[in-house]
Amino acid sequence: MCAASTADPAALATSVEARPGRTIVVGLGNPILGDDAAGWLVADAVEAGLAARPARGGDARPPVVVERLAVGGLTLMEHLVGYSRAVLVDALVTGADPPGTVRRRRLDSLPGREAGHVDSAHDATLVTALEAGRLLGADVPDDVGLVTVEAVRVLELTVTLTPEVAAAIPVAAAVVLELLDA
Amino acid sequence: MTRITIDPITRLEGHGKIEIFLDDAGEVSSTAFQVPELRGFERFCVGRPVEEMPVLVNRICGVCPEAHHMAAAKAADAVYGVVPPRTALLLRELLYSAFFVADHTTHFYALSGPDFIVGPDAPVAERNLLGVLQRVGSDAGGRVIEARRRCHRVVEIIGGRAVHPCTSIPGGMTKGITAEERDEIRDTADRMVDFAAFSLELFDTLILGNPGYVEMLTGDTYRHETYSMGLVDGAGRLVLYDGRVRVVAPDGELHGEYDPADYADWIAEHVEPWTYLKFPYLRKVGWRGFVDGKASGVYSATPLARLNVSDGIATPRAQEARDRFFATLAPPTGGVRPQVHGRLAMHWARLVELLYAAERMAELVADPEITSDHVRTRVDGIVGEGVGTVEAPRGTLTHHYRTDAQGVITWVNLIVGTTNNYAPITMSVDRAARALIHGGAVEQGLLNRIEMAFRAYDPCFGCATHSLPGEMPLEVTIRGADGAVIDVRRQHC
């Protein structure tokens, strides 16, 4: 087996400086697939909510980073490197809840694995990807929360949300902001 | 046996669905493989300016947006009848080669690896990337992550964003690269050539050194003799970004070679009542059903097909790897182009392509014109119709657009990589089912062996649907001769 060169020690470093308390909120989804845009729209609302808050004197915590992504599995894990905490937001179709239901979930508890974008059919579930990252020495968050919105229509190309999902966007954003304050 | 009609209106819950029908003796008589289809993309695009397409199509698929971006860029060039300057073409192909390295790396270690490095009979909990990393070691695992990170960085440098590039426009690119960026990419390219060679050696040691795996690569369970399709350059060598489409018969004879714009003269679509997706086939051969052979118009467009159609590879180490591939797996054919038909050999073919893509990165970044700032040809006039074709990791990808005189889309047709392979995937699943189900009894490991049959193709139904989660969620229903359900197996759903 060839051992002429080995991995670059900086392989898992990112441009993000790892500091205690650094948090990322990631809206997951596809903005042109109807209700699948929910994650991105919640991220927009969270970002607006954070910007509207008055600065708290003496608060040494680094600012929360908000991103919108359409990736899962390994690629999503790689985006989380350097953060101590992550909150992921995604649309979900389970049929078990009325459309627009907002839930907080554990990453490894997604019902029936028919959910959203956290996993990838082409490489790994996010849980596996995070474990792989830890195995390789990556600084990935131990605290990964998931906020989901029960969706209706995710297989149709449209920029319009169903009414119940649209109404759930501010609700989900409030749940995320509450999580960030916890 | 009782004929079962599957209602095509039935909504699939976002996972793959296989129906296996048994005859009176409990042997498999037929198989149907359904996936949910995302429809309406063509309608969605009508009314949009064609120059928006390279960015819009990033959203079709979260796995290979770079492939759609490039096919769209080439189609948009053709709509305006414009040829980008040489530097722009170098940059596009450099980005594309980096994407291929990242994508093939991920597939081999995360999808092939669980089957071959961990083993098909290992517990489910171990048959994933983590199981692979635990077996190959943290150093190898670190190189996998490094390859992905570095190649995503190349895409970001040239394409403006990691994963979802946005710099290709009609006539070229919105920006070039600096000398510093070129140096960074050159370092990455050298490391990727090294890494690709390492991966091939790993395959050699862990897989070719295991008689059980060699049997899987060469045996009948995963073998189909179909036509092969792929892009080639003027010398008949494998290419990924641009070329002519070549189709080769199962015996290696040339079926035809054509300009990608003429695809409609060569490809037709067959419809079945039990699935939304259509089955492309070779028009000049005809549809004979889901059968192998030269008289059947079924074709494959995969890494294996690309090796089968080509006469060689233009980069030296990949050429050596190709020679070894055929010397090992293909019987001598007395001068006719050698063919490999064991579908699991796709995993090896992917690594040969990985090495080619890495060597091609090194060639392109060393070109003196790579840092030129002449990256766009001015658009002057419009043709109003264009076809853009690239080799996506999963097969030949074609975007075909028509526009009005202002460049606004009036019509779109896409043939995505995996669509080419829908018939062979269906056949491979059927073959695996027939090998595993006898006398009505279903063997242990059925689902995984069936999943291996189509996972070799790395099917991306994310192009046809919303990205599927996790390991392929799959429901397998086995019905008796009277149509009654005998057994239902579920995996990840």
CATH architectural name of the domain at 83-223 and 342-377 in chain B: Orthogonal Bundle
Assembly annotation? heterodimer
Percent range for helical residues of chain A? 25-40%
Order of strands in the sheet with most strands of chain A: 2-1-3-5-4
Distance between the termini of chain A: 50 Å
Which terms would index this structure?
heterodimer, A: 182 residues, alpha/beta, Rossmann fold, five-stranded mixed β-sheet, 4 helices, globular, B: 493 residues, alpha+beta, Cytochrome-c3 Hydrogenase, chain B, four-stranded mixed β-sheet, 14 helices, 17 strands, 40% helix, disordered N terminus
Could you characterize the architecture of this molecule?
The complex is a heterodimer of chains A (about 180) and B (about 500). Chain A is of the alpha/beta class and about 180 residues long. Chain A has one domain (about 10-50, about 60-180): HybD-like (Rossmann fold, 3-Layer(aba) Sandwich), CATH 3.40.50.1450. Chain A is built from four helices and five strands; from the N terminus they run βαβαββαβα. In chain A, strands 2-1-3-5-4 form a five-stranded mixed sheet. The longest helix of chain A has 19 residues, at about 165-180. Chain A is globular and about 40 Å long. The N and C termini of chain A lie far apart (about 50 Å). Chain B is an alpha+beta fold. Among the domains of chain B are: about 1-35 and about 435-460, no CATH class; about 85-225 and about 340-375, Cytochrome-c3 Hydrogenase, chain B. Helix content of chain B is about 40%, strand content about 15%. Chain B contains 14 helices and 17 strands. Chain B has helices at about 40-45, 55, 65-80, 85-120, 130-135, 140-160, 180-210, 210-220, 305-310, 315-330, 345-365, 415-420, 420-435, 445-455; strands spanning about 15-20, 30-35, 170, 170-175, 225-230, 245-250, 255-260, 265-270, 280, 300, 385-390, 395-405, 410-415, 435-440, 440, 475-480, 485-490. Chain B has a four-stranded mixed sheet, with helices on one face. In chain B, a hairpin with a 2-residue loop joins strand 11 (about 385-390) and strand 12. The two termini of chain B are about 30 Å apart. Classes of the chains: A alpha/beta (about 180), B alpha+beta (about 500). At the A-B interface, helix 2 and helix 3 of A face helix 1, helix 4, helix 5, helix 6 and helix 7 of B.
